[in-house]
Specification:
homotrimer; 38% strand; three-stranded antiparallel sheet; 3 helices
Chain lengths: 147, 147, 147
């Protein structure tokens, strides 16, 4: 068993889902780990991670619209408005989605489902640089059968 | 440290929570790993994973009813309705719950709490075959103390 | 690669977010693991885990208020009210947040973002003893570069 770690920096353009599957796959492919687990970790509280359908842009639109409906940018609802109307909703949307994702690797490839992509979800209105920590733990060869 | 991987296929009967604790425990028990971590990963975007109370069927009913209330099957709310009124709500419900769960193993057993069960949450109205990847990383014996 | 496991018990004072970052950092620091992953697991279905902004108490207040709005303590909405009006809402709030968190470790330290703290989220009105399992997997030294 061995491991590798990497910081992936993603530039966002304001609110919305940014697909990061290609960058993540590229890094995993170069690690020569046949079997194991990849963990992505988002070092922010106003952006988050999500596995979601990556074929239809409408899915991303509808998911974003849903979150705007249940977490409205209405400053009268929140005490914490230091950085504007999108500040506290960004923290809530992060809490409702994921700060961390762990995805299996087999045959040297991420075991995403056919329709699954990995997304960084930016919850702030303005563009940000987001820092993700990738950790891959596994083995170069298929594991020996045991048990 | 060593690892094992397995694909668990679960047949669902349409919307609702399916307890998979017995199948998962059975696979872990046969691996002879005393201490480590089990990661379950759901390869779908309209079904998800959840740790939840497993004693009362009413909890499952109420959780399902709550999600139907906040994510209504009203096609006028969504652009993505390709596969019917349950299509986009299924993606949203998956986003609000988990695609992946990691559970500790000690003394060769999953360290679930007394009332916890592992559930596959089917969000589509029709029955589906769902594919879960299980990865167990750990050691055959209790770890030596260090640090 | 090696690992360590520990049970951390946290006393809560009823509903609200309890920051546990100091206790978790303290345990990790004593393990002498330079690089790896820490997994926290909550063995309860009416308390959960969350990475959240830890500078402003208003964020915690607003997050709590948001969850009370979308998951009201109205017994007519639920079948499962065995332990009072906070019973079923506690299970739903747990389902919407996290039972488990995995956080990377580099240079012997948790790679939390500048504004991130680790919180135990108590969803019951009365004080409880909550049991968390911490599992750290990694290496004493920085990993050799490979791939």
């Amino acid at each position: 068993m061995r491991q590798a770690q990497h910081v992936l920096t993603i530039a966002t353009k304001g609110k919305g889902l940014v697909e990061i599957t290609p960058q993540v796959k590229h890094w995993v492919a170069a690690r020569e780990i046949a079997t194991g687990l990849l963990t992505l970790y988002c070092r922010h509280t106003s952006a988050s991670l999500l596995i979601q359908e990556n074929a239809s842009p409408d899915v991303r639109h509808d998911l974003d619209a849903f979150l705007r409906r249940i977490v409205p940018e209405d400053m009268s609802l929140y005490r914490h408005n230091d950085e504007g109307p999108d500040d506290m909703p960004a923290h809530i949307k992060s809490a409702l989605t994921q700060t961390q994702l762990t995805i299996p690797v087999s045959d040297g490839r991420l075991q995403l489902g056919v329709w699954q992509g990995i997304f960084l979800f930016e919850h702030r209105a303005s563009p940000h640089q987001r820092s993700l920590v990738l950790t891959l733990i596994g083995e170069e060869h298929e594991p020996p059968r045991f048990g």
